[in-house]
């Protein structure tokens, strides 16, 4: 179907990095562009290809590298490289997850920051953290097995927060409300013991 019908455009605010080369976007060097074939948000380097698209009267349109190779019918051997652990697309795991939502995250003495957190069904004992729901690479992963859960927030913390600790490693999270916090805790309490949690997504 590529190029035969107009794609659904991924919104700019749903990604923090190029969906092809995974370089982070910033105000100066990395402007966001849309591939006219697949609708993904890509940087200028990855949108520097043109192909004739059927849905647009066969006019030449800006497309990403992957779509360009598919449309002109040539394969790219580089794409066959095995993906690293962080290179699992957020949309891929969010759609097939035990639980996923935005949580506030704090590590050591850094400020709280918003992260799209996902526990995928195929790896129910690992927490993936993304900058945004459509990012193609995780910022970090936390293998939950063996962590201790502390769900009593201290006065300096955000109200619906909880901590994961293992030796010197401490990860603090906060949900937007108590209900969401309890959903996450239900999953995490099982995962830290090595038990596979039930799906919590509505």
TrEMBL record:
Is Membrane among the key words of this record?
A: no
Q: Where is this chain primarily localised?
A: cytoplasm
List, alphabetically, the Pfam families matched: FYVE, PH
Q: Which PROSITE patterns match?
A: PH_DOMAIN, ZF_BBOX, ZF_FYVE
All copies of domain FYVE-type, residue ranges: 12-68
In this protein, which residues make up the domain named B box-type? 13-63
Where found, per UniProt? Cytoplasm, Cytoskeleton
Query: Which residue range or ranges hold the PH domain?
Result: 96-193
A Gene Ontology cellular component where this protein is annotated is: cytoplasm
Entry-linked Gene3D superfamilies: Pleckstrin-homology domain (PH domain)/Phosphotyrosine-binding domain (PTB), Zinc/RING finger domain, C3HC4 (zinc finger)
Q: Which GO terms describe its molecular function?
A: guanyl-nucleotide exchange factor activity; zinc ion binding
* SMART domains attached to this UniProt entry: FYVE, PH
Q: Which GO terms describe its biological process?
A: cytoskeleton organization; filopodium assembly
Which UniProt keywords are given for this protein, alphabetically ordered? Cytoplasm, Cytoskeleton, Guanine-nucleotide releasing factor, Metal-binding, Phosphoprotein, Repeat, Zinc, Zinc-finger
Tell me the InterPro entries matching this sequence: FGD1-4_PH2, FYVE_RhoGEF_PH, PH-like_dom_sf, PH_domain, Znf_B-box, Znf_FYVE, Znf_FYVE-rel, Znf_RING/FYVE/PHD
User: What is the protein's given name?
Assistant: FGD4 protein
Tell me the gene name: Fgd4_0
């Amino acid at each position: 179907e590529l190029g035969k019908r107009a794609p659904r455009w991924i919104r700019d605010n749903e990604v923090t990095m190029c969906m092809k080369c995974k370089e982070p976007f910033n105000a100066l060097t990395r402007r966001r562009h849309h591939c006219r074939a697949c609708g993904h948000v890509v940087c200028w380097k990855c949108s520097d290809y043109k192909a004739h698209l059927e849905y647009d009267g066969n006019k030449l349109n800006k497309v990403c590298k992957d779509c360009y190779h598919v449309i002109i019918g040539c394969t790219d051997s580089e794409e066959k490289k095995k993906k690293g652990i962080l290179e699992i697309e957020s949309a891929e795991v969010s759609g097939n997850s035990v639980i996923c939502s935005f949580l506030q995250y704090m590590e050591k003495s850094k400020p709280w920051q918003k992260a799209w957190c996902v526990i995928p069904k195929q790896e129910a004992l690992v927490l993936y953290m993304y900058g945004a729901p459509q990012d193609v690479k995780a910022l970090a992963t936390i293998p939950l097995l063996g962590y201790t859960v502390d769900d009593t927030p201290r006065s300096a913390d955000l109200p619906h927060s909880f901590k994961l600790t293992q030796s010197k490693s401490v990860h603090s999270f906060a949900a937007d409300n108590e209900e969401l916090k309890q959903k996450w805790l239900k999953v995490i309490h099982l995962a830290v013991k090595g038990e596979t949690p039930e799906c919590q997504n509505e």
